Amino acid sequence: MGWLVQILGGGLAGQLREAYEARLRAANDADRIAAEIRIAELQERQANRALGGRLTAWVQAAWAAPFILYNSKLLIWDKVLGLDATDALSADLLDLQLRIVTFYFGGAAAIGVVRALRR
């Protein structure tokens, strides 16, 4: 169960609490600066996780994989090699593919914009 807490971010909150406590207990400037650096690192990890962490990336890749394979086959097998063996996508699947591509690349662009604005 501990691994689930780590994935969902429970461990990160505890690490942040410990870092703040370490900053309060700092005996000298070097300890305080080390604690400040650790706090900044953890806050950055927390912000990245809020924008979409490793789990989000795996889900996006899993949704995109069938369409990447289909388009790769379409381009290489059918167009480059000229074998024309792939059936066309139905209107519903084409619409789904366009939505996935839009959200996959649009989501990455939105995350980049948010990160740029946070700085």
Task: Walk me through this protein's architecture.
This protein has 119 residues and is mainly alpha-helical. It has five helices and no strands. Helix 2 (10-25) runs antiparallel to helix 3 and helix 4 crosses helix 5 (91-118). The chain is rod-shaped and about 75 Å long. The two termini are 35 Å apart.
Short description:
Keywords: Membrane, Transmembrane, Transmembrane helix. The chain is mainly alpha-helical.
SSE diagram, text form:
Layout: H1 2-8, H2 10-25, H3 29-52, H4 54-80, H5 91-118
Transmembrane segments: 96-117
Keywords: Membrane, Transmembrane, Transmembrane helix
Amino- and carboxy-terminal Cα gap: 35 Å
Q: What is the tally of helical segments?
A: 5
Work out the number of β strands: 0
Main sheet specs: none
List low-pLDDT spans. none
What would you call the quaternary organization?
Answer: single chain
Structural class per helix/strand content? Answer: mainly alpha
Mean pLDDT: 79
Q: What is the ordering of alpha helices and beta strands? A: HHHHH
Q: What's the Cα radius of gyration?
A: 22 Å
Index terms:
0% strand; mainly alpha; 119 residues; rod-shaped
